[in-house]
Amino acid sequence: MKIITGKDQGKSGKVLAVLPQRRKVVVEGLNVVKKHVRPRRQGEKGEIISVPRPLDISNVQIACSRCGKGVRTGFRLVGKTRIRVCVKCKEEL
């Protein structure tokens, strides 16, 4: 996926999770925020961890391997199956 808006605009990464009810996706290594974690046990220290947060689905596009850009998608029928393709170069995604 390629990010088209926000602080990570222009970067791309692998999708870790899709949240269809909330219309969000989690992309690996992008939209990362620092989270403060309290110590759970006595003697353990608190820490700051980096966590990827969900992005709205409207802020990402599928990246075409041939074009190397974020692209819109279309479909091509092969028999009775629909194959997702890049609108620009007609390459399968």
The geometry reads as elongated
Domain unit count: 1
How are the strands of the largest sheet arranged? Answer: 1-7-8
Classification by helices and strands: mainly beta
The unreliable regions are none
Report the sheet with the most strands, covering strand number, pairing sense and barrel closure.
3 strands, antiparallel
The level of helicity is: under 10%
The CATH topology assignment is: SH3 type barrels
Percent strand equals: over 45%
- Helical segment tally? 0
Give average pLDDT, whole number: 90
Architecture per CATH nomenclature, i.e. the level-2 architecture: Roll
Q: Kindly, what is the distance between the CA atoms of the first and last residues, rounded to a whole number of angstroms? A: 11 Å
- The H-and-E topology, N to C, reads as EEEEEEEEEE
Computed Rg: 18 Å
- The level-1 CATH class: Mainly Beta
Q: What's the β-strand tally? A: 10
How is this structure best described in words?
This protein is mainly β. The protein has a single domain (about 1-85), classed as SH3 type barrels (Roll), CATH 2.30.30.30. The chain has no helices and ten strands. It has strands at about 1-5, 15-20, 25, 30-35, 45-50, 55, 60-65, 70, 75-80, 80-85. The strands form four sheets. A three-stranded antiparallel β-sheet has the order 1-7-8, with no helix packed on it. A three-stranded antiparallel β-sheet has the order 2-3-6, with no helix packed on it. Strands 4-5 form a two-stranded antiparallel ribbon. A hairpin with a 2-residue loop joins strand 9 (about 75-80) and strand 10. The protein is elongated and about 65 Å long. The model has no long low-confidence stretch (mean pLDDT about 90).
